[in-house]
Amino acid sequence: MSLVAINGASAAAIDDIKIEESHDLCAGKDASDENYVVYATNLNPTQTIDVTFKYDSSPSRQHFILFDANLDPVTDRFPKAHTRRLLPNELARIGCSHTYRAAATSHNPSGVQLVITKVTAAYVELW
Questions:
Q1: Is this model's pTM higher than 0.85 or not?
Q2: In which element (H, E) is residue 14 found?
Q3: Which of 20, 53, 80, 121 has its CA 20 to 30 A from that of 90?
């Protein structure tokens, strides 16, 4: 059995998390979609960090029909949050730079830019 203690959210833990958009394409129609994989990196070489990311549409606070991997429609609302544990020096895929919604005037989905930010972060002590 292992025990986990989370040290309160700290500015140092948030500063140890880097978010960057890559040149790797997310699933989409083609390269012209400009839909790229977004990664988070724990820059700390010794500390595990629990970080909460906020995902929001641009413009902010939209809700609309999205399409899942099978292009089935799903209602979604922004903003939303997701918490993830990052090991020391871990690079993890945390999302894509765009999502797709039903277009008002055509049968093709239209892209919506997503903004991914850090909300909270805390060092984790694993015993």
A1: no
A2: helix 11-15
A3: 80
Q: How far apart are the first and last CA of the chain?
A: 9
Residue 118: what pLDDT?
97
The share of the chain scoring above pLDDT 70, in percent, equals 82
Number of domains in the chain: 1
Tokens 């820059």: give the residue.
43
Asked whether the CA dihedral 16, 19, 25, 31 is positive or negative, the reply is negative
Distance in angstroms (rounded) separating the CA atoms of residues 111 and 89: 32
The range of the structural domain enclosing residue 74 comes to 4-126
**The two structure tokens encoding residue 13:** 């833990």
* Region at 82 (left for phi over 0; alpha for psi -120 to 50; beta for the rest): beta
Three-state SS for 53? strand
Give the CA dihedral 93, 95, 26, 62, nearest 10 degrees: 180
**125's tokens:** 């002590």
